[in-house]
Amino acid sequence: MDTPLSKLVGAKTAKALAGHLDLHTAGDLVYHFPRRYDERGEHTDIRALDVGEQVTVLAQVQRTAVRPMRQRRGNLLEVTVGDSTGGTLTLTFFGNQAWRERELRPGRWGLFAGKVTEFRGRRQLNGPEYVLLGEATDGEAAANEEIEEFAGALIPVYPAAAAVPTWVIARCVRVVLDTFTPPDDPLPATLRASRSLVGIGPALREIHRPSSKEELYRARRRLKWDEAFAVQLTLVQRKHRAAAWPARARPPRAGGLLDAFDARLPYELTSGQRDVGREIGADLATAHPMHRLLQGEVGSGKTVVALRAMLQVVDAGGQAALLAPTEVLAAQHHRGMRDLLGPLGRAGELDAAEQATRVELVTGSLPAAARRAALAEVASGRAGLVLGTHALLYEGVDFADLGLVVVDEQHRFGVEQRDALRAKADQPPHVLVMTATPIPRTVAMTVYGDLETSTLSQLPRGRSPIASHVVPAAEKPAFLDRAWRRVREEVAAGHQAYVVCPRIGDTPAGSSTGPAAEEPPAEDDTGRRAPLAVTEVAPLLAEGPLHGLRIGVLHGRLPADEKDAVMRSFAAGDLDVLVATTVIEVGVDVPNATVMIVLDADRFGVSQLHQLRGRVGRGSAAGLCLLVTEAAEGSSARERLDAVASTTDGFKLAELDLEQRREGDVLGATQSGHRSHLRLLSLRRDAELIRDARAEAIVLVEEDPELARHPALAASVAALVDAERAEYLEKG
C-alpha cells in the first residue's frame, strides 16, 4: 500500500500521477476507483455533456472530413463520432495530419478524452487524446495491447486529467495489481459473514478488472460499506464521547421570561413549534450538552423556537448567543427579537418589565463606543441574549455564563468558527444549529449523524403560496418584458419587489474587496458572458423598464451602516424595488414584498433558489418568483430550473440538489481541501446501506468504544476518514 508509484510505473508517469491527480503510492492508485464502466457497442450519453466539462467518451467513428483552414495555412480534420441513439460529437484536429484520417476510419470504436466546447451549436472536442479499441494495426498493437487485455468486456473510465488520460491510469493500475499484496481485511469476519461482504483483496481487484457485472456489484458494495462504516463509526464514537461530557442543566422556570414571552406572543404557535420546543426544552434540562439540528422550510418559524430556547436558558441564569452569517441578518434578528420581547428585552430602560433581560448586537462594524458598551453588557451577564456575526468569535468578546449557542444557517460557517464560539464557555454549552435548507435523510444521517434532528414542516397561519415560473429570456424576450410589467403592476398595487443578480460588479473578480462568495468570475473558461451584476443592472432598470420606481441597491460590499439603512428603507416601504445579491438569501423578512425576479437563475444552486424565493409571500398577498435564464431548453441547467419552478417542497428539491452536486462536498471534502478515499458512497442511492452501517457501528462502539480490540479497523477508519475530516465531524 505504501510503495511509491515511481518504483512501479516509472518516474515520468509517477510524476504525472502525483502532479495532476495527487496519487503517490500503490494504495492511492488502487483506491482511485473508476468513475464508470463502458461496454463496446453501448453508448455514452453524448447529448448530456456540459460545455466546459472534461470528459472521456466511448464512441464510434461515423465519418471524417478534411477542409482548408481559413485563417492560416494547412488543413482541418473533422471527425464525427457518435452512438446508436443519434448523439454526435465533433473531434477537430488542426494541421496536416493525413495519418490520423487513415487511423480514424468509420466504424472504429475508441475512448476520446478532452474538454467539451461548442461551435455554431455543435458540441466538439478540440485535439482530443484518444485510444482506439479493437482491429488494431501492427503499429497500434503495442500501444493498445495492455488496455485491450485490461478492459475485457467492461472498460473502466477513471477520473482523469488532460495530461493523464484514463487509459494511462488503467495501464498503471494493471501494473500495480500484478504485484499488489492487499492489506489485512479490517472488517471483523463475523460482520463480513452476516452482511455477505466479499474480502478486501477480491473487492479491490474486481473493481478495477471486473470479471462480470455481478462480481463488480459485489466489489462496489463491499467498498461502499467500508466508506459508510468509517463515517458512521466516527460519528457514533463522537456521540458516545459527547454523552459523557458535563454540561450545566438549564431547566425551565415557572413564571419566568419564557412564560411571560408566551403570554405576550401576538399569534398562536403551530403544533410543530410546540412539539419541537418541548424536545429542545427537555434537552436543555439535562446535564449533558444538547447537540440538535433544527431544520424547517423558509418561514416555518424556526427563529421563534430558537428564541424560546434562549429564554429558557436566561431563566436558568445563563446567556444565549445567536451566530448569524451576515450583518444584515444579525441586525434583523436583533430588531425582530426586541420587537417580539418588547419590555421583556429592555432591562435597565424606563419601561422594562420586572424580569427583563437585555438583547445586545455585536458586529464588526459597530462604532468603538457602542462596541465597548455592548461587550461590557455581555461580559457582566446583564445581556442575556447576544446576537452577532463572526465578530462574536473574536478575542475580547467574553461571556459571564454562556449556556446556549444557536447557529443560524449553519452551512455558511466554517467548523473552526462554530467551535471558537463554543470554546467561550467554561463548560460545553448546549448547541442548536438551524437551517432552512431541508436536508435529505441520508445526508442528516451521514453528516449530522451525531445530532438529534427536529423538523418544522408546518407554515404559520397567514402565509401565502409562492408561484414560480421560468422565463426563457433568449427564446422569448417578450416574456422578460412581461416580467418587468408585472413588477410595475405589483408596485402599483402597493407591494414591493426584489431583483436578484449573481454578481456585485464594479471591481474585477478575484479582487480582495468584498466577500468572495458573492462575486463569481466575470467570465468563465467556456467563454460565457459575465453574470449580470447589481451595479450594472440597477441603473439599466432605473432608466428602462422600471423607470420612475424607487430602486435601492444591496450587496455585501456596502458598508454595514449603509446596508442596514437600505434594508430599513425597504422594510418601511420607502423603496419599491431592491436590486440585490444573495445577501438577502436568508432571514430577510419584508411581508409586503410579493414578487422576485432572479436574473441568470441558472447561475444559482437549487437550495439557493429555494431560499431566495422564500423572501416573497411572507404576508397575506400571494408571492411570485420568476427565474430568468438564457439556458437552452433541454439543458441540465434548464431542467434544474424547471424542477425548482414545479414544486415548493424543499425536501424534494434537497433530493434533486443532492443528485446534481458532488456528494464529496456534502461529506466535507471541500472543507478539508484534501484528497479523500470516500469515492463510491452515494447518499442518494445507498440509504439502506448507510442505515445498516450505522446500526453495526452503534453495536460495535457500545462493545469497544475506542476500537481497541480492532486495530486494523481503527487504521482503516483513519485512512478513509482522514484526520482533518475526523476533526470536521468531531467539531460538528
TrEMBL record:
Keywords: ATP-binding, DNA damage, DNA repair, DNA-binding, Helicase, Hydrolase, Nucleotide-binding. SUPFAM superfamilies: Nucleic acid-binding proteins, P-loop containing nucleoside triphosphate hydrolases. The keyword Secreted does not apply. Residues 283-456 form the Helicase ATP-binding domain. GO terms for molecular function: ATP binding; DNA binding; DNA helicase activity; hydrolase activity. Residues 479-659 form the Helicase C-terminal domain. It holds the Pfam family Helicase_C. Residues 504-528 are annotated as: Disordered. One of its GO terms (biological process) is DNA repair. It comes from the Bacteria. PROSITE patterns: HELICASE_ATP_BIND_1 (PS51192), HELICASE_CTER (PS51194). Gene3D superfamilies: Nucleic acid-binding proteins, P-loop containing nucleotide triphosphate hydrolases. This is Probable DNA 3'-5' helicase RecG.
